[in-house]
UniProtKB/TrEMBL annotation:
Highest taxon, organism lineage: Eukaryota
Compartment annotation: Secreted
GO molecular function, one term: lipase activity
Protein name: Lipase domain-containing protein
Cited Gene3D superfamilies: alpha/beta hydrolase
GO biological process: lipid catabolic process
Lipase domain sequence ranges: 59-329
Length: 340
């Protein structure tokens, strides 16, 4: 028998996704273009897809491990011993996890762009986390699985420590959108002992500033960075990390001016991050707003680099910068020589 709570969950899910699609400039006619797999008009299907009806299965989370020396290998959370069979895997080098967002997978752009940038850098083990079984469900159901996915990724990392004596200081977890929120639960599950988290436009809808225990926050790793590119729309609209970067003000990105500007701005965060891995020319200034930054009033303030894989953890606060509308996006330090 359908309960009142289940009906409310279904109605909210349908309502939220209609609003969500409208905000990013897409109509319901274009659901197929973003790979949605549910018929939101069918209440029975939506009820069956509600959090109460879908138990979490750790084996629905897959880990695609790549190095420059070997082909990609698919593993599960309890198969970390098999890492020793992958050419190029070394605990002396960085291991970087990439976690995609809603309605994505290890084959979609965020995963491919980030993996390719990491492998181009070299001497890195790239681990693409695929949780598409759950990310292709309605948004509220996907959110309900976020903590579980984070705990599963944390289990994989614990296996790296136990089986290979891997140092958590050599582990970086990156995530885009809902994947960024997952990265927070990875860190929480490891009691903040991760080396670093880099979050790319952390998902905003249903994540509230006043509940840091239920979202990514500073303290989830030894260093947490957030790159905000579509605040007030698909991303959060508040500082949440040790260092929060607001390129171009963090709301609408240059060159993202068509009818789907919000989605393009949201995705620009991982494009920035991928570029920064091999050519970090994203110099930002500590500042209170993009208006102050562009007026030059912050020109003498602390400089920090956005993204990358090497971090100055002493630099904290909110940082602003301009970027180009086309690649390469990094403009360097437009106010000086890049010295703190």
């Amino acid at each position: 028998m359908t309960t009142y709570l289940e009906i409310v969950t279904v109605l909210f899910s349908v309502y939220f996704q209609c609003v969500f699609l409208k905000r990013i400039g897409l109509s319901l006619d274009y659901l197929s273009e973003i790979q949605a797999i549910q018929d939101l008009a069918n209440q029975d299907q939506a009820v069956k897809a509600s959090p109460e009806y879908i138990p979490f299965d750790v084996n629905k989370v897959e880990f695609y491990v790549s190095t420059t020396s070997d082909k990609t290998t698919k593993l599960y959370y309890n198969e970390t011993r098999s890492l020793r069979n992958i050419k190029g895997f070394s605990t002396d080098s960085l291991t970087v996890f990439v976690i995609h967002g809603w309605i994505n997978s290890h084959l979609t752009q965020v995963s491919v762009v980030m993996r390719d940038a990491l492998l181009k850098h070299g001497n890195i083990t790239a681990v693409i986390v695929d949780w598409s079984y759950y990310s292709h469900m309605d948004y509220t159901t996907s959110i309900a699985k976020v903590p579980h996915v984070g705990q599963t990724v944390a289990s994989f990392i614990r296996g790296m420590v136990d089986d290979h004596n891997c140092s958590l200081d050599r582990v970086i977890v990156t995530g885009h959108s809902l994947g960024a929120q997952i990265s927070g639960f990875v860190g929480k599950s490891l009691n903040g002992s991760l080396g670093a988290i880099v979050s790319m436009d952390p998902a905003g809808p249903l994540y509230f500033e006043s509940f840091p225990e239920s979202r990514l926050s500073s303290g989830d790793a030894k260093y947490v960075q957030a790159i905000h590119s579509n605040a007030r729309m698909l991303g959060v609209n508040y500082n949440m990390a040790d260092a929060d970067f607001w390129p171009n003000g963090g709301i609408v990105q240059p060159g993202c001016d068509d009818e789907s500007y919000s989605l393009f701005s949201h995705n620009r965060s991982y494009i920035f991050m991928a570029e920064s891995i091999n050519n970090n020319n994203f110099y930002a200034r500590k500042c209170n707003s993009i208006t102050d930054y562009r007026s030059g009033s912050c020109a003498g303030n602390t400089v920090a680099k956005m993204g990358g894989l090497v971090f100055d953890t002493s630099l904290t606060g909110a940082f602003y910068l301009n970027t180009s509308a086309t690649p390469p996006f990094g403009l360097g330090d437009i106010f000086g020589d890049g010295q703190n």
